[in-house]
Design a protein that fits this description.
Elements lengths: L6 H27 L4 H10 L8 E5 L6 E5 H10 L2 H26 L8 H14 L38 H29 L6 H14 L7 H15 L21
Helix pairs in contact: 1-4, 1-6, 4-5, 6-7, 7-8
């Protein structure tokens, strides 16, 4: 078994968490810019403090009782005086760049950057852009290999251009994470299925099913989920019949609202 069989699912979990966080941050960003500071008012309601009072923001030094105290009211006043579009882009650029670093580092740590895979090549360059102040940064002769998602294709002309909003906006970022979920999830499932297929000799469907469950569990895949159980049953049946099944993985679904409503 690989030294870290859960590394692909670690990437899946990270990408899904980043998607969820990004959706929530869109709402938070809008609330920060609204008159009356509704975010601050929500804190007053939660704490039972007067709605017109101030709240302290404490930034504490690690492992000490020392720190700095700021005014929440002043902080919201300053934010609301900044240009709205600039604020929105800078606020949302932060989580996108953090996500680029997180996914890129996980792929690098797992030795999953593949010259023949355009998605992982894109992830490498997106991570480097985040590390270079939100600008695409290519070494000599880079991009050496095709680097693209379903929506963004990189080439040398992107050098020193802004990565977020000029190239990767909220839509492109979210769908990039979806592609990462499919890529890493498929790798995890394929490895489990390949091992089960390789060890299929003299095993009945129930034994194959149990073996697949163990391989899924070793990789951090929640095999008890009904939809996963359905897939395991299908893979087990295929393997029992001497077929190495093709693996299909779909990203976690989020409800889409009808744009007319």
């Amino acid at each position: 078994m690989a030294p870290n069989p859960k590394r692909e699912m670690d990437i899946v979990d990270a990408a899904n968490s980043l998607k969820t966080l990004f959706l929530a941050q869109n709402l938070t960003m809008t609330a920060m810019l609204l008159p009356g500071s509704p975010v601050l008012q929500a804190y007053h309601e939660m704490l039972g403090s007067p709605p017109d009072s101030d709240l302290p923001i404490d930034l504490m030094k690690r492992d000490t009782d020392e720190g700095l105290r700021f005014s929440a009211k002043q902080a919201f006043d300053y934010v609301q005086k900044l240009p709205s579009l600039k604020v929105q882009k800078n606020i949302l650029a932060g989580p996108m760049l953090s996500g680029a670093l997180t996914i890129g580092n996980l792929l690098i740590d797992g030795s999953l950057i593949d010259p023949t895979d355009p998605l992982t090549q894109f992830a490498k360059h997106f991570r480097n852009a985040a590390a270079h102040g939100d600008k695409w940064h290519f070494d000599a002769k880079e991009p050496r290999y095709p680097a693209h998602t379903a929506n963004v294709k990189l080439d040398r002309s992107f050098q020193n251009r802004r990565a977020t909003f000029e190239t990767v906006g909220p839509y492109e970022y979210f769908t990039y994470l979806d592609e990462i979920v499919v890529f890493a999830g498929r790798m995890a499932v394929e490895k489990a299925v390949t091992i089960a297929y390789r060890n299929r000799a003299n095993k009945n469907p129930a034994e194959l099913h149990a073996g697949l469950e163990r391989e899924f569990e070793a990789r951090g895949i929640k095999y008890s989920d009904p939809s996963i159980q359905t897939n395991i049953a299908f893979y087990s049946s295929q393997i029992f019949n001497g077929i190495n099944p093709k693996v299909r993985v779909t990203p976690k679904e989020y409800p889409l609202l009808d744009s007319e409503h």
